[in-house]
Each structure stands twice: as structure tokens, then as C-alpha cells.
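Q: Here's a chain of 564 amino acids. Please give me its 3D structure as C-alpha cells.
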Amino acid sequence: MADSSPHAPAPAPDKIRVRFGLRWRFTLYITGITLLVMAIVAFIVSREIRSTLDAQIKERGLALARNLADSCVEPMQLKDERTLALMMLVKEYVQSGGGAVARVQLLERQSLPSRVWAYVVRLGQEQVLEGIRNEGLVTAMVVDPEGRTLAFADAVVEQQDWLSRLDQPYQPDPGAGLLGPGEEFHVWTSQARGLYILAAPVIASAGTGAGAAGSSSASSAAPAASAAPAADAPGSAAPAFYGAVYLSVSQGLVDRTVARAIAVLILMAAGLVAVGAIVAVFFAAFLTAPIRLLTQGVQAIAAGDFNMRIRLQRSDELGELTDAFNQMAKGLAERELMRGAFSAYVSKDLLAEIIKNPDAMKLGGSRKEGTVMFTFFGNHHELPALMAKLDPEAFVRVINDYLELQSRMVFDHQGHLDKFVGEEVMAVWGATSPVQGHALWAVKCALAIEDAVTELNKRRERQGDMTTNISIGINSGSMVAGNMGSQDGKRDYTVISADVNFAARLAGAGAIVHGGEIWVGENTYELVRDAVELREKREVTFKGIPDPQPVYIITGLKAGAPAA
């Protein structure tokens, strides 16, 4: 009764096995390797591009800052219209043109994946903006030595708002600072705003132009500690320090270039993956087609079709595998043929042992305990008369009918059919292959043969055919089982010993005395006495044996006899 308890464990669900074919595995591997390689290439290329552009932009920004600083020397020496002149200068340096899109790009703070996706959507095409000048330069300003803003221009701030920054203290962007005394330049990176900050001093030699007069308020305000000695004329006057120029350049120039390079690589990778996938599918099909044929061949062999052959002409490893498969199928067919032929002569257990262990077929043998049964065709006194009544062909047909019946009984009762000697049968239990209760199996087989012969004789009598009886002798004991014969010639897998010979004498003696009886030697009777019905015990003298030997005539099994 099934357990209906609520605490009974639920049956485990059957696992669903998803078949992932070699073709798709191969395609997936090729695709994965391609993507991995392209990812590594993209990482290396992006680093190299960023490093190179970073250096180039800083170098270009410093050149612009120094150029603006040099241009500011003369306007800084003016008393009147200094601010206007400086404003006109810085205005020319900041980015212009390109419209609102270009202005948005200057301070656009997109993540790298977003930039890359934008380029992927545009198939790697750069957004063309007309009329851009000084691209990427966001702000330009000039400050005096005290840090007050003298001129200011910003590409993203309306021009009317520029003047509000004049005369205000210069406030560096996060991550930037002020140009120190005596510094020829300085570069900062403001990650918060995505800017490069570049600074250059506005200086003029004391021996040139109006700087020598020292009338400029800017020159008078410059502290002595800020002046550096002239490098070109030892002992000459120190250069005049008028202030500093600060330029801000957008890092978006680098980010966009890197993103575009990565997008191009992604597009190339997509193309390579597509091509690689197509190639992988066809190449995998080239490989898997023979494998499918081999699979079908293996399934056919498993179903018992040992004549299966694969027709595949290839000169590679798969061709060698196909040839090996065909050789295997041929060998299995030959073995199966041998099994079918040999099974008519030996028991299934012995046949399985020989196939599993071919060394068992070598010459030689081993001592074992077993039981042997011999059967004789008819009564010795009647046999010549029977042979005389029939022509040889008809007599052979009669013998075969009785031999077939006995063979079937031997196999049905776990016996090994050792041999036919004319009309005689020799069968073995236990010595050629392990059989539990070998003596009882042999007796049961003898009784079954006796019953089957009785039924066969009745049928033959009704048909008007000749009939006969079968004399049976059984004995147990020690015997040597193995291959007997010549090394290079005929062999016979059989058993030999005095006990085996005595079983043959029992059958022969029974056929001489009466025929149709089961004579059992004392060794066998001691093993089965509790299971069999005994008709009588005799003392029989055998040729070559000086003393009479006990012989037991068996008629049947006792009620409740144990199974063998």
C-alpha cells in the first residue's frame, strides 16, 4: 500500500537532459574565443589610444597656453584698454562653431559604455560638425599676480556673462591649483568636471620693450621672489612677471576617440563572430556527419545487426575511426557466428566463459568436482536388428530425433553437452562451469529425458515409425576439465577421470542388461539420496574392476524434493 502520509517525501522529478550538439558547442566555443580575443584587443587598444591622446592634448594645450601667454605680454603693459585687448585675445582661443551640439559635447559627462553604444548605433561614424575652431578648448582666462581675473572667455557661457568674472579671484577647478612662482607651466586633471587645466606664466624680459621702463602697474606689483633670472644673459635683469594664463580643455576629445575605437572593434568583432559562426557551423557539420554515421552504426550493432558497415572514404582520423568501426563490426559478426555455432555444443554458461576468457580454450585443464551423464541409444541386443531394418540415411534421421531431444533436456537443466559419439551422448554438470547441486541437476535431466522419450515413442508409434529407449548412466566425482588434443590440430573441450569412465560403464552396462533405465553410481547417489526414488540397488561386476560395484536404479523424485 502506498504511503499517503503528508510527511512522506515527494518523488524526485525526472531530470530533463538537454542535448547540446557538437555543432553548437563548437560554434559557441569559436564565438566565445573570438569575443574574448576582441575584448582583450579592445582593452589594449583603448589604453594605448587614451595614453597617446592624453599626451597629445596636453602638449597641444600647453602650446596654446604658452602662445596666449606670449600674446598677452604687450596688452598687459598697457594702461588703457588692457581689458578689452585681453578679452579679444582669450575670445579667439576658446572653441567656436558647431552650434549647440558642439557646445553640449564640451562638458558632456557620458559613461564610456553609453558613448560606445552611440557609435555602434552610428556604425562607427563620427558626428560631423561644421566650422569648429579650437575644438575642445572650454575656457581661457588671464589672471594677474594677485590672482584676480583680467580676462575670461568660456565656450559654453554666453558672452554677456563673461564680464561678471572680471576682477574676481580665480577659483581653480576641483583637482587643479595655482601656478607657483618660477614654474614654467603646470598641468592638472579635473576628473570631477572632465577637464585638463593647463597654466603658463605671462612673463617678459626686463630688457625688452616697455618692460624695461618698469612703468607698468603689473610689473611694479610683481614681487621680487617671483622673478626668475634670464637664462640667455648672465647678470642681466630678471624677467617681468605679469600673471598667468589658464586654459581648460575637455577630456571628451579623448573619451569620444576611445569610444569610437572600441565601437569599431565591436563592429569588427560582430562581423568576425558572424563569419566565424557560419564557418564553425559548416566545419562542425563536416566533423559531425561521420560521427552521426558512427552513432547509427553503434546503435545498429547494439540492436544485433553485426553486418552493419559504414561507407565513408576519408583519409583523416575520422576515416581511421570508421575503418576501426568496420573491423570491430566484422569481428563481432564472426564472434556472433562462433557463438551461434558453438552454442549448439556447449551450455550458455560455458560459452559465456569462453567468450569472456579466450585463454580457457588453451590446451590443458584443471581438477574440479562434477557429475557426468552418458546415454546409450536402445538396447545392445536390439540395436543391430534396428540398424538392419533401416537404410543408413533413415537410421541417421531416427538417431537425430532422439539426440535432439536429449540435447534440449541437457541445456534446459544447466548442463554442458560435451559430445556425441555416434548414438551416444555425454553431458557434464559442474566441472566445465560452476553449477550448484550438479548431481541433482543431472538426475533431473535423466528423468526428463526418460519422460520425453516416452512421449516421443508414443508419437512415433502412432505414425508407424520405429521406437527405442535410452539407457542412462550417471556418476559424480573428481575430474579434470579442459582442452584435450594437439597444439596445432583438433581439440576437444571435455572431462576425464576414472569417475567419468565409470559413468560411461554404467550407461553401457544398463543398455546390455535391460535398456531404458537410469543407473547411478554410489558417489552420485550419496549426493541425491534424500531427493530421489530408488527402485533397487544392485551389485554389478565391471570389466577391469575386480570387486562388484553398487549401482542404484532411479525411478523418480520424492515429493518435495529440493530444487537443484
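Q: Can you summarize the key feature?
A: Residues 22-76 form the longest helix (55 residues).
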